[in-house]
Design a protein that fits this description.
transmembrane helix; two-stranded antiparallel sheet; elongated; 9 helices; GPCR_Rhodpsn_7TM; G-protein coupled receptors family 1 profile domain-containing protein; transmembrane; 226 residues; mainly alpha; membrane
Length: 226
């Protein structure tokens, strides 16, 4: 069924997110300076799968919304083929911010930059003002869009359940599912505050920078996936 395909896509996506996050974190400790081109590949993948998570949650909420509010059209709209197309769209839309970051660096940096070595984290490689602004805009934009979709689908399912008592159990289950997606999204939103949290804590405790980075990494990247 489409919802289980999307669920497996979410699990696989989070597995890739965790793997890439841990690899990048290990790079910072074990290989302080690595080739920028290799670093860009890892950051590109990490940025894409990170954006996919909220988009995937939105897709799962919409599928439940169609199942409860338009049950007669569910079999026609939510097919396996359409679900595959939706997953493709999720990956394409999720890749847009990383593509923008990469294009900015390719245009404004000399080619020798990609053969140099740097510490491998986003702010150190994509450090132009355009990158910082676009990164913030895309993150906030994606999260706001998904929050709006989750709120809309949740309340539509809630009202539909009250209006039609023929399938109360299914409507209640869908409502709980969308609410769970909201909790998942709330946890994913924590990663938006990583940079702010790191900056605030390191300003007070500059000698514990590595410990602070490690703890915020666990809090904002690992914990939400668990």
């Amino acid at each position: 069924e489409p919802r289980y395909i999307l669920y497996m896509q979410l699990i696989i996506n989070d597995m890739i997110t965790l793997s890439v996050s841990v690899i990048l974190f290990m790079f910072v400790y074990l290989l302080p300076n690595i080739n920028v081109a290799i670093c860009c590949i890892f950051i590109f993948i990490g940025s894409n799968v990170y954006k996919n998570t909220p988009l995937n949650l939105a897709g799962m909420a919409i599928e439940r919304f169609v199942a409860v509010c338009y049950p007669l059209h569910h079999a026609r709209i939510c097919t396996v083929q359409n679900t595959k197309i939706l997953i493709g769209i999720i990956w394409l839309v999720g890749a847009v911010p990383a593509v923008v970051d990469l294009l900015v660096v390719i245009i404004l940096r000399p080619l020798s930059f990609f053969t140099s070595s740097r510490k491998c984290y986003h702010q150190n490689v994509f450090d132009f003002e355009y990158n910082i602004i676009s990164h913030a805009v895309f993150n906030i934009g994606y999260m706001c869009l998904v929050w709006v979709l989750l709120f809309y689908t949740y309340f539509k399912v809630l009202f539909s359940a009250k209006a039609a008592a023929s399938e109360p159990a299914q409507a209640q289950k869908a409502r709980k599912t969308i609410l769970l997606h909201g909790v998942q999204l709330l946890l994913c939103t924590l990663s938006l505050f990583t940079a702010v949290l790191d900056g605030a804590l390191t300003s007070f405790f500059p000698y514990y920078r590595s410990i602070i980075y490690f703890c915020t990494f666990l809090l904002t990247s690992i914990l939400p996936r668990l």
